[in-house]
């Protein structure tokens, strides 16, 4: 198994991370930046967008039945001073539209990139 690297691009309080081999860091970084640029330009595949929303919704539904994730949610809420439930997260995913994604992406910029070995 190749040595796995973790590349993280922190984008305006938004984190993209991936586990990749050392040899693919430059390729992965370029792909991420090109993907964000495409979204900024309004190039969003509706089918992929809807599949991503469905997957995220499923993850939140599953999370609501896992004690470890419920505990993490409670801790995150305590740290943020709010009570944000999995039901509210699911509702937010259902309400999220492509135009909001494009608007969000247009506020992003790449200010850091680093690799953990």
Architecture overview:
The protein is α+β, with helices and mostly antiparallel strands and 117 residues long. It is 56% helix and 20% strand. The chain contains 5 helices and 3 strands, in the order ββαααααβ. Helix 1 packs across helix 5 and helix 2 packs antiparallel against helix 4. The radius of gyration is 16 Å and the shape is globular.
> Outline, from the CA principal axes?
globular
Instruction: Summarize the main sheet.
Output: 3 strands, antiparallel
Radius of gyration: 16 Å
> What is the count of DSSP helices, taking H or I runs of 4+ residues?
5
Distance between the termini: 15 Å
Describe this protein with a few key phrases.
117 residues; alpha+beta; three-stranded antiparallel beta sheet; disordered N terminus
């Amino acid at each position: 198994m190749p040595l796995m690297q973790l590349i993280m691009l922190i984008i305006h309080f938004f984190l993209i991370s991936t586990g990749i081999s050392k040899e693919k860091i430059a390729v992965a970084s370029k792909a991420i930046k090109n993907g964000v640029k495409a979204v900024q330009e309004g190039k969003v595949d509706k089918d992929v967008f809807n599949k991503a929303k469905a997957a995220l919704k499923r993850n939140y539904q599953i999370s609501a039945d896992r004690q470890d994730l419920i505990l993490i949610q409670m801790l995150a809420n305590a740290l943020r001073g709010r009570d944000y439930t999995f039901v509210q997260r699911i509702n937010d995913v259902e309400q999220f539209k492509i135009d909001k994604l494009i608007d969000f992406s247009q506020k992003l910029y790449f200010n850091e990139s680093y690799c953990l070995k």
